[in-house]
Amino acid sequence: MDQANRHNPPSRPNAPTVSIDTAVAARKPDAESPLPSSAQATPMQPDPGEESLFNIVGNPFGLSPGHLSKLIEPKSVVALQALGSLPGLERGLRTDARAGLSTDETRVQKEPGCGRAATNTREPKINHTDPSQPLSFLNKCSDHYLDRRRVFGENRLPDRKSKSFLALAWIALQDRVLILLSVAAAISLALGLYQTFDGHREEGHGAQVEWIEGVAIIVAILVVVIVGALNDWQKERQFRRLNQKKEDRSVTVVRSGRAARISVHDVLVGDVMVLEQGDVIPVDGVLSEGHNVSCDESSSTGESDLVKKMPAEAVSQALLQPDADIRKLDPFLLSGAKVLDGVGRFLVTAVGPHSSLGRTMLALRNDPGMTPLQARLNVLAGYIAKLGSAAGVLLFTVLLIEFLARLPGNTASGQEKGQNFLRILITAITIIVVAVPEGLPLAVTLSLAFATKKMTRENNLVRHLQSCETMGNATVICSDKTGTLTQNVMTVVGGSLGTGGTTFADRDFSPHTARRLSNCNAIPSTKDAGGGAAMTGKQQLTTSELASTLHIEFRDLIKESIAVNTTAFEGEENGQPAFIGTKTETALLDWAKRNFGLRPLATERAQYPLAQVFPFNSRRKCMGSVIQLPGNKHRLLVKGAPEVVLERCSTAVADPTQPLSPTPLQVSDKTAISDAVSQYASLSLRTLALAYRDLDSWPPEGKHADDSADIFHSMTWLAVVAIQDPVREGVPAAVHDCRRASVAVKMVTGDKVETARAIARECGIIADDRDSGGRVMEGAEFRHLREEQRRTVVRELCVLARSSPEDKRVLVESLRALGEVVAVTGDGTNDAPALKAADVGFSMGVMGTEVAKEASDIILMDDNFSSIVKALAWGRAINDAVKKFLQFQITVNITAVVLTFVSAVASSEERSVLNAIQLLWVNLIMDTFAALALATDPPNGSLLDRAPEPRNAPLINLTMWKMILGQSVYQLAVCLTMHFAGPSFLPYPDPQLRTLVFNTFVFMQIFKLVNSRRIDNKLNIFEGLHRNHLFMLMMALMVAGQVLIVFIGGAAFVVVRLSGVQWAISLVLGFMSIPVGILIRLVPDRYLGACVRRLPSLPRWRRKTRETDQEASAGRGYNAAATGRNLESAMFSIRDDLAFLKRVRGGRIAALSEAIAIRPSRSEGENGQRRRSKSTMRSAVGMPGLLAASIGAMSPVVRQAETGSTRSVRQSGD
């Protein structure tokens, strides 16, 4: 019995069962009651439509989910008393508020006469397992608690029904352009069949297969639809698995009187769950025992005020008082609420869909919407779609005019004329299919899905997808020390007992550390002539000598302080008995067990009934527990930061080897103790002080029991212990990688300056003592800086010591106000504001509180700083993958559209060199195969060799445009030369020449895909290729598909077989894309930039806006409200652009556009009307404008919207 009795006195009298009549009669008249009379009269009456929750077939329990729902919806003390308060819940749920559920329970036999809980007087049968039996099986036994699961359900929401493959295929088939193309292909097929079987066949023309083109186009459409549906189906599966992992976590429950860690999904109604500060409550319940429990229920009620909780039995007692205010009696714990203070335990009353949070989540299930990168890509996609649509319409118009002009002299049959017209229509429609880049959102979705899956394997659990994109451009990482930079494997290796005359060091743990500690412990002792604490010499001990040297009174007091004043408990880790709790507390318990004969915690605690607990928080920087001593005396036990505890001590134990005799603590004693603490800190050791205070009564006369300021003074100093927490292996290398990537690392810790400086030096955050570039500052000094001074300091600041969570938040917001992209780590409840304020928040998966995890974007499952660097690399890989795909796709867009347009207009038969079915094959390569190949490139070593991109960087930078334009010029020059001048130097028949042009064009795209693996000017395009197996598979599929098309495509693709020489020409010209790419990379970017700056069409207004934004941001801090308004305006523009895509395409694009649903702001225009967007997408000004705008970093979305979208979209996902 350890954690089960952690917060209880050893015995508990039977609580009075207050009936509803007694409760109401004891209160004021009904006229003053805050409850409606109907609630008082019939608190258990089912609401309309919820009768099924009250009538469960074969229910062996005295209560049903309907009865329990009356406790919470809304909170009702009246309903609690109607159920018999806590004893009634115990009987009705067949559980025990102390021991919890029995681990032997499988099925529950309904006892005779077992009805409503308030009338059931029989005690529940609780079977207790053998204490030696491990509880690790609790997560694995599916044959336990069968009736309990059936009646009350499990703590998981029903899986949202995913779209089937056929449903996804149907959605993809709703693409309006594909529908139009299908209709045209069907008409072409009908005409072809008529021509083939009408019986009129000219001599010498062989078999007529006019119908094959229509069939081939329909088959190609089906392939596009099936491949798109497969990608969407796979994406949904990956994200569903990610969400399942993201929602799972471990909680502490008491079963059969023993504490156990189980999955949150295995919590059942009737469980007794342990509460600690920082927990996010996963279920509904009623508080059974607790100290100072306060909850933030704003997520459920919308009220930001803290709600003080009272145990159920205390509520029953309060109701007996005539002046009880029922509105202040709250024993109810709501799922989703955050425990901001206190410790305790509660009885679970509702789980899963029956809990308050579960009901809300079921009602609010919707798609999370788009990430900022997806939104930016859709803006670009809309721009390209408009240009492509305009090209398709223009091509159809020109060819139609030519067709009509030649119609009088056309001697072909009516069927042939109809086929010619349909060919013109199909070619124009296919141009639109090729030009509308639906592969852009597919690329970023695939990249995010692939990256999040890989990041999970590397201990980064992504909660919000947009954080992956943002992390790639992080410029500053603000990291905690304990557990992130250090191993969080703590061991007491030394310390100073009393006023410093007796010290000890653990020589067995680390000889090197012991030698350093011995030198540290060799400080001179003080001798006070005025009767203060005095020692004539210094006594140095090893830890093995402590038990035999220290006096039994001092030894028992140390053991008592460590065993009782802690939130840790005994449990299991990896099947072995262990202490479970914070690493600092478990280190103290291990030390006491090794050296002071610490018995099981339940035995130690049973001797000292607990009267009050003051949990640790960042404001107090210490923790206290009040225990009851014989003779109705009490003792306050305190541990915490040495400087805080020492300041509140007035006496000290002078000699721990003698009976306890506290003596006054003089200034010289405090100086000696402070010097010892500083020297320990300089050795990278954490320090923790122990103190106590004896009290004649509790609470002290005239003092309030809950006010620690009235209690924590006039204490007696016991000792300070030094705890070693080594730096994690790999952290110095990770910090070096951050420096290589131009990412600054700042350490934010609550430790002393000396400890923080020593750890920072070991990690490489500060090079050495001579490093003048890194500044170390204490939180107290930092928070008193003026805003202008703070902005000057934060860039140079490397270590912020003795800091509070508020200091961390201010640091983050100051950095963001300077334009930095900030990532921050946090593990405590009070770190939530800093995690929210950062661009990317990392919480600790092992030691982090649930509040911190809820506020974060990524959970570090191993609490390791090296995992943050992995997230940085993956973030850059995601951004690079999308840019690689853009570089590839826009090249294909330009060449395919221009080649088709020019060749069709120049042809006397209105025929393009690339027909519709060939263009659909190119579209499949461009939108699907390329997305799969380029979106799955893992990070390579060179990713960290460049600086982060600024917030307002364009999607397509100058280097990328240089490659796009250069490759487009090369491909168009080759294809147009072969098509128009080919007959003069390539003596091939027209069908072979057309096939040669098509084959060469496709292989140029295939080799261009390899060339697109780099978006910078470096020449190694094969870096990391061997690790991207999907890229090689896609390359093989494209090559195999093209070979099959040429050899057996025949009439379907309108191709003929090529000779060996013709294959060599195709491959050589295609391969030349790689050396051409090398030449393009060797051209300095400044030449292209100079040409762009000379273009008269460069929009100057956008540059002025950006400069104005930068000037404005330099003079003010981060403004969340302004950012939100700018984001809203930008998202309206994106929604309008997507509306165009939706009108043109529908299908999968429609699903993306529906993800944006924003209510118009009344402040954006007069009479509540939204102003028209000024996005450059309002008019298609042509490709030169697009090139100039992108090169000049002129995104269609203003910069504030880009910076705000990363935060606001993330917060909406919370």
From TrEMBL:
Q: Which reaction does it catalyse?
A: Ca(2+)(in) + ATP + H2O = Ca(2+)(out) + ADP + phosphate + H(+)
One of the GO BP terms on file: intracellular calcium ion homeostasis
Q: Which GO terms describe its molecular function?
A: ATP binding; ATP hydrolysis activity; metal ion binding; P-type calcium transporter activity
Q: Which domain of life is it from?
A: Eukaryota
> In what way does this protein cross or attach to the membrane?
Multi-pass membrane protein
User: Which InterPro entries does the protein's record reference?
Assistant: ATPase_P-typ_cation-transptr_C (IPR006068), ATPase_P-typ_cation-transptr_N (IPR004014), ATPase_P-typ_cyto_dom_N (IPR023299), ATPase_P-typ_P_site (IPR018303), ATPase_P-typ_TM_dom_sf (IPR023298), ATPase_P-typ_transduc_dom_A_sf (IPR008250), ATPase_P-type_domA (IPR059000), HAD-like_sf (IPR036412)
| Membrane listed as a keyword | yes
Q: Per the database record, which ranges form the Cation-transporting P-type ATPase N-terminal domain?
A: 147-188
For this UniProt entry, which segments traverse the membrane? 165-191, 211-231, 380-401, 885-906, 912-934, 993-1010, 1030-1055, 1061-1083, 1180-1198
GO cellular component, as recorded? plasma membrane; vacuolar membrane
Task: Reply yes or no: does the keyword Translocase apply.
Answer: yes
Localization, per the record, is: Membrane; Vacuole membrane
Note down the stretches annotated as region Disordered.
Answer: 1-53, 111-133, 1161-1181
Query: What range(s) does the P-type ATPase A domain occupy?
Result: 247-362
* Positions of the Cation-transporting P-type ATPase C-terminal domain: 912-1082
Which family is this protein grouped under? Belongs to the cation transport ATPase (P-type) (TC 3.A.3) family.
Describe the task this protein carries out. Catalyzes the hydrolysis of ATP coupled with the transport of calcium. This magnesium-dependent enzyme catalyzes the hydrolysis of ATP coupled with the transport of calcium. Transports the calcium to the vacuole and participates in the control of the cytosolic free calcium.
Q: Quote the PANTHER family the UniProt record gives.
A: CALCIUM-TRANSPORTING ATPASE, CATION TRANSPORTING ATPASE
Q: What is this protein's name?
A: Calcium-transporting ATPase
Give the species this sequence originates from.
Triangularia verruculosa
